[in-house]
Amino acid sequence: MDWIQSWKTTIFSLLKDVPVHFRPLVASISIDGTSATTIIVDGTTGEPLWRPFLYNESCPDALPMVKSIAPVNHTVCSGSSTLCKLVSWWNAEDSNKKSALLLHQADWLLWLLHGKLGVSDYNNALKVGYDPEVDSYPPWLLAQPYSQVLPSVTAPGTSIGFLKEDIRTQFGFREDCVVCTGTTDSIAAFLAARATHPGKAVTSLGSTLAIKLLSTKRIEDARFGVYSHRLDDKWLVGGASNTGGAVLRELFTDEQLDKLSKQINPTEASPLEYYPLKAVGERFPVADPNLAPRLHPRPESDVEYLHGILESIARIEAKAYSLLKDMGATQAEEVFTAGGGAKNEKWIKIRERVLGLPVSRAMQTEAAFGAALLALKGAQQSIN
């Protein structure tokens, strides 16, 4: 798969999809991309020097070297971190090091639009080792020979420059349309929910269970896979459990889930205690690579079985928020729900009871909506 070409084709087809009569009204553009999707490019031409490393790729070969320089339990101490990908490339490549430049997926796509190479944002740069608290790369990283390929970093939603003239002319966008730094897909999805006060949280119930909580305090613990992204003067603390919708999909069809859920009484607690996982191993809120899935005993009634599973996932979610509080994060006050699980009204009621918090479906959960809010921020800054 030629990922680079497919992303480039997609970005221009998206520009083409904007209705012609809207194009002169577009004031700014921003992009969210998958966190830790890494591209090493030529610092002069912007052309890729290597195939891209995708977000979920692991580079275990680089992990010992990264662990030897980074603080204990730092976010980069994971095989899939951007820094591990950079080190893996650096060790394998001999020739193009002098002119090389590291960009994230969103950075590279935005470069196609604004033409200024080497600009990133502090959300995307977190997993390469950037410290958003002091707004710089740490000394332990700058001391490494490969630090020369790191991009400059600004806040997400910062105006970089105007849309390139050839693109403006080709598509009919206005002359003063600005292009702003982007963010990661999960941050953009959080921004879309408009959870703007400390204590507001978003639980994404997709194939896994991911939680993000807006906090006044930064929390980091690689053992649990917990780390914090900066959001202006606050911190977005996040963690992900391996439980979630993927387990439900293995046991029930969508039709069964819908039909059985309607028969559940969400005000009654289920006596069944499960730990629904697809495979052995959990990271958050329990750091145990040997934790086995627990989905038995199975009652005769499918309604009771589903109730037990939904309630068990809700208990894991409650434990996750409780762990973040114990670590020092702001206590969760309200939870918005995104992902496929947000459609299940009975599950929302179960979770509300188990969490002891107001739980509702987020009005907007599309990451693209969050990126548009960042673009709006950038447009307002450039006016001021």
From TrEMBL:
<dbReference type="InterPro" id="IPR018485">
    <property type="entry name" value="FGGY_C"/>
</dbReference>
<feature type="domain" description="Carbohydrate kinase FGGY C-terminal">
    <location>
        <begin position="229"/>
        <end position="376"/>
    </location>
</feature>
<comment type="similarity">
    <text>Belongs to the FGGY kinase family.</text>
</comment>
<keyword id="KW-0418">Kinase</keyword>
<keyword id="KW-0808">Transferase</keyword>
<dbReference type="Pfam" id="PF02782">
    <property type="entry name" value="FGGY_C"/>
</dbReference>
<protein>
    <recommendedName>
        <fullName>Carbohydrate kinase FGGY C-terminal domain-containing protein</fullName>
    </recommendedName>
</protein>
<dbReference type="InterPro" id="IPR043129">
    <property type="entry name" value="ATPase_NBD"/>
</dbReference>
